[in-house]
Amino acid sequence: MKTNPLEVFGSWIADSPDNWPSDAREWAHREFIDTVAVMVPGAVEPVSRKIFETVAPWGAGPCTVFGQSTRLAAPWAAMVNGTIAHVLDFDDNFDPPKAHPSAVLCPALMALAQQEKLSGAACIDAYIVGLQILGRIGQGLNPTHRNRGWHATATVGVMGATAACARLMKLDAQQCARALSIATSMSAGFMSQFGTEMKPVHAGLAAKGGIMAASMARAGVTAGTETLDGRTGMNRLMVGPDYEELRDTITHIEHGQNLRYELESVGEPLLITEHKFRVKRFPTCGAIHRAMDGVLDLRAEHGFSADDVTSVDLHMPRVHFNNVMYTDPREPLEAKFSAEYAVGCVLARGDCTLADFTPEAIMRDDVRSLFPIIHRHPVDKLEGEFPTQVRLTMRDGRVLEKTIAMPQGSKSAPFTDEQYWAKFEACCAGVIPPEDIDSLRQSLEKLPSLPDMGELMHNAEFTAAEFTAAEFTSAGAA
């Protein structure tokens, strides 16, 4: 049996037959829908324009950038579109690597498929393959990798994007292994960028890196053979000098994260159907979604308003609080990583939508006045060991409690097809005209049978410059 993870993963990428079960293909299709949905409003965000203007002079090409009429070379289109997909923090999460996979995989595959004139079915296949490798490598590094501050969407995301692109390009096993090795040299990203414009750029860099690594491997660029598991391999460097001790003494394993690369059965179970996704109900960091669900559940059950509440106590794993670190957010991006703003928003407004993340909305007193009554109680346990507990103390003396183990949109409570399309329609409203929404939806609906992904991408060439964030908000998009 091969023991080098590069060789094992490379062989699996190249040689696995495209005979995935129907539910795997359906999940992949749904995540393309979800990703395109959030990319439409993401295209009007300031950082999306900044990244486009940065890379546009570096190379025109055949590939669409969402919201732009100018096409770029595939790596640059993937970089901009990856940023666009992640900027609202409304894109999906995937538990095995603790990363946002689709904001990386979809932009990379859409750009490469448009360049090569490849089909929607080929993209579905490559997505499933890329997600599996992203998950397997993530399981080999986590939970420690992410808990110590690495942004897995960037570090592990580029590995998944590379696997997906190598599959789409039909590289052989040796080329696929080399592509993964090349990608380790592009693996970077710290959680210290959360709440800034660089955080979504991480997804763009990972998408770009996937196309570049696979293309370099096809061109014959050589790379090391011990870059995943070696004395200075990805696991030892990106977990820490105590990697082996942690690996050998781990007792509680969540989402298959056991600090070991799975080499005996790379494709079993198929992670896309085993774990599914955490599709976002709210455009905020997913670490606070359980608490937001709990507050809304209590509101629905008891019919109170924010004025009726004197204290909100949040008991959550410390690692979740680490992700929502801004206690007094001053910018919309900071508000997306604030437990106080997210919980205060659903408590005061009964929901949390894209319209709640403008400079004006985050400074309104209806939410900010609640910050002093929202109390953090971190617990030193992983999320699977400790569900989020929400405790509300009311003015009349009642104490209302709710415990949430998994948020809405996750494996335990997945979105229906109708909810996916409702999110799509809501994201597009006010950004593009109704007839363009219909065209984009039609091409998305038939994505698995599209002979050329260019048809879908053509419908993404709306002119985002015609819309400002203020106009978007006033149009009622949520």
Beta-strand residue percentage: 5-15%
Structural class by helix and strand composition:
alpha+beta
The succession of helices and strands, N to C, reads HHHEHHHHHHHHHHHHEHHHHEEEHHHH
- The CATH topology label of the largest domain is 2-methylcitrate dehydratase PrpD
How does this structure look, described?
The protein folds into two domains: 5-274, 2-methylcitrate dehydratase PrpD (Orthogonal Bundle), CATH 1.10.4100; 286-404, 2-methylcitrate dehydratase PrpD (60s Ribosomal Protein L30, Chain: A, 2-Layer Sandwich), CATH 3.30.1330.120. It has 23 helices and five strands. It has helices spanning 5-15, 22-42, 46-55, 74-86, 102-116, 120-141, 144-147, 152-155, 157-168, 173-184, 198-219, 234-239, 243-249, 271-274, 289-302, 318-323, 332-335, 339-349, 365-368, 417-428, 434-445, 454-458, 469-474, and strands at 60-63, 309-317, 374-379, 388-394, 399-404. A four-stranded mixed β-sheet has the order 3-2-4-5. A hairpin with a 4-residue loop joins strand 4 (388-394) and strand 5.
